[in-house]
Design brief:
Blueprint: H1 33-36, H2 40-117, H3 124-171, H4 175-190
Helix pairs in contact: 2-3
């Protein structure tokens, strides 16, 4: 009875041996003569062929895994580039919309001042709008920085107060009390 060849076709090394030729040396006749019929050179050749086949399968597996990693890296790179380009497009659209809005407001104010005060005063609209926008940005930045500094400092103070509370709970004193005690000891040693 012949074994089916491995690898989907062709003659593999495993189809050289029949199932009844493979045994443990303790068959019913007690001789195990079937295994002795295979010359050692043929057995070594079959083992070398199987080792080569195993090496090929391992190379195939590793190659497939490397190609999958390369494909994933390529997809990440492509989507990253598309995201960056999309981000630039979105920022450009927002900037252009802001410029168009500011231009329209400046023109409207210029026309209004030109109508109310005369044609020579049309420049006053863009100037006032620019001052209001820049002043608003300055005031917003100033209050924003003050708020950020206040909240950051508040978080740090709360963090260290919690830590001192935990030290008092764990050790019966905190770092401030220990520093005060150390200063008292140093003064008493000097005085």
């Amino acid at each position: 009875m012949e074994c089916a060849p491995h690898g989907g076709g062709g003659t593999g090394s495993s189809d050289r041996f029949r199932d009844e030729d493979v045994g443990n040396g303790h068959d019913a006749e007690g001789g195990g003569a079937a295994a002795a019929d295979i010359p050692p050179s043929e057995a070594f050749r079959a083992a070398a062929t199987l080792a080569g086949e195993l090496k090929e399968y391992a190379g195939y597996y590793l190659g497939a895994k490397l190609d999958a990693i390369k494909l994933t890296a390529t997809n990440i790179a492509v989507y990253t580039i598309l995201g960056i380009v999309g981000g630039f497009v979105a920022v450009t659209v927002v900037v252009m919309a802001a410029v168009m809005l500011c231009t329209a407001i400046c023109n409207g104010l210029g026309n209004l001042f030109g109508y109310l005060l005369g044609p020579g005063w049309a420049w006053l609209g863009p100037l006032l709008f620019g001052l209001v926008v820049l002043g608003g940005i300055g005031v917003g930045a100033m209050y924003g920085l003050k708020w950020f500094a206040r909240t950051t400092r508040g978080k740090l103070v709360a963090k260290y107060e919690d830590r001192k509370r935990q030290e008092r709970h764990n050790y019966g004193h905190d770092v401030s009390e220990r520093a005060r005690q150390q200063r008292i000891v140093e003064r008493s040693e000097r005085g």
